[in-house]
Write the structure tokens for this entry.
Amino acid sequence: MSYLGIDIGTSSCKAVVFNAKGQAVTQRAVRNYAVLSPAAGFAELDSALVIKSCHEVIAEAAQAAPEPVAAICASSQGEAFTPIGTDGKELCHAMVSSDSRSLQSMNLFTAEFGSERLYRITGHTSSTLFSLFKLLWLKQHQPQVFANAWKFLCFEDLLAFSLGVEPAMGWSLAGRTMLFDINTHGWSHEILEAIGLAPDKLATVLPSGSIVGRIPDQQASVLGLPRGVKFVTGGHDQTLGALGAGVCHPGEAFYASGSVECICPVIPGKILTEELFRNNLCTYDFPLPESWTSLAYCLTGSNLLDYFKNTFGGGADYDSLIAEMPTAPSSLQVLPYFTPSGTPHFDQTTPACIYGMRMTTSRGELLKGMLEGVALEMKLNLSILEASGIHIDQFMAAGGGCTNPQLVQLKADVLNKPLSCPPVKECGCRGAALLAQSAIENISVAELPHLRSENTQCFKPRAEFAELYQAKFQQFCHFSQGVRKMFK
């Protein structure tokens, strides 16, 4: 038997089939689609196109699989949802995470409901990222769509519905809506009552790795799937990426290094603290029993390397530019807000700032200083997590920002933590496939012998730079605070 994992992202969807040893047995099937921006602050996906693309990659991967697919599971982008009418059709496009049109709705609702009350229920602090505030905007500005919706579905449950099974999602994806009570593991009656939404307007919520149902034979046949294939709940893409990289024990964390840099740790118990609340660091379900996670992230990631290459590269390729970086820490301090910041500040106004340049500053040192800035911002997040009792001893790292060894070594040096890079190209797909396998074989994912890939390369922090980077981190904290004060 084999297991199909699909990763439904903001710019593309991907599907890979894995065998019972956790090894990919098909090439990645991928379809790209564009984020639409019809007005300032708007960011939308054509949900019908996304689901059509999902069906195409499922069919492509399934038909290439050497063994029949027993189950499908999805890793999904968070927050985005689609209103579905009684005829099963989309009533409008999905507002994705970066859609910020709900800012006024968010501020008014948070002031009335209470920010700490929201945090204690959902484990999250208010941001225009979340489905709650996008729903409010829809209710206020497109009331006919809100009223006519049969369901509001995120992409995991929308895919399930499109395949002919009950619309259902894993707890970790539900947690990203800010409609989910992490204490009861159900939709929050307090929040739904406050926005005038009935719970039956939302999908069923289940633990990740639950069998939702059997895909009808006719639908399976259209996609080249065998009779009897099951749909299994997955969850939020960051958490499933962590699982696919082999992260499953407390003290371990996933370091996703893509266009966004993100830390996703495994936490053995639910932690809600004033420190986490004040610094916008969430707590929600990890896709393993009795496990939790948080997300610390910087919205400037490997996109910064793209910017540097396009602006200063002069035709040089990525590896050539990286090779110009000095071995030792740079003499620069860089606040990496080339995009709005992520955690801990949720700062949308302060721009990036480069301090310490002289006429002797080389292109390689400038690049290293900018990448150090991102790593130092992540170290700030890490220090806050650890101050709240979330200790991380080792990272499993993956993504475009891990393709060059110097980039991974820089992160290890700045964080002063070992980073291991598993030979897995599609961690989200693999995490979903592992959940599918655990459901069909009735075994915990953590007990699967192939959970962690072999031939993992480990980058250890270099002792000769530890004190230098610790001093640089202390300076960075003061520098960051000073620059942000200038723009308040």
Summary: The two ends are 57 Å apart (CA to CA).
